[in-house]
Amino acid sequence: MRVWRGDLSGADFADYVMPRVEGAVVLDVIHRVQTGPAPDLARRWNCKAGKCGSCSAEINGIPRLLCMTRMDALPEGEPVTVTPLRTFPIVRDLVTDVSFNYEMARLVPPFAPGPPEADGIYRMTQIDVERARSSASASSVSCANTSAT
Ligand code: FES
Q1: Whole-angstrom Cα distance, residue 91 to residue 40?
Q2: Predicted TM-score of the model (pTM)
Q3: Residue 6 CA to ligand 1 centre (angstroms)
Q4: Going by fewer Cβ within 10 Å, which terminus of the chain is more open, N or C?
Q5: Which domains does the chain have, with CATH numbers?
Q6: What residues flank ligand 1, with Cβ below 6 Å?
């Protein structure tokens, strides 16, 4: 595991050789690094279920969720490089300042359903069903603000 360590004043990669564990995701290994050789490693996570987005980082240069990326899906025999998301300002190690997300979430108006139909029942039109499906499938890297809505 090759992990980016540091902050804006200076950073470098640190290598950690960790035992292989069947079924592990990258977040599991990061936790083991933190509870073992690097207790001061800064990282963020919350749900470990691919819902909150707080574990977002770059794995081998690609933005992904640490909790949803299986170790056995990554190239074997090569270091797995974990770096903070380049999109956001660095705080320290794998933690970035995502306050911009919260600012943008405040600009999104809350959902307000239209009136019910004449029989008093709310119904979705097919176009809204399709829109909800495409929106759900497009969120492979979830937004950290889902709990704010
Ligand atoms: S901890 Fe990974 S998405 Fe929530």
Answers
A1: 14
A2: 0.76
A3: 22
A4: C
A5: 2-97 (3.10.20.30), 99-142 (no CATH)
A6: 45-48, 50-55, 65, 67, 142
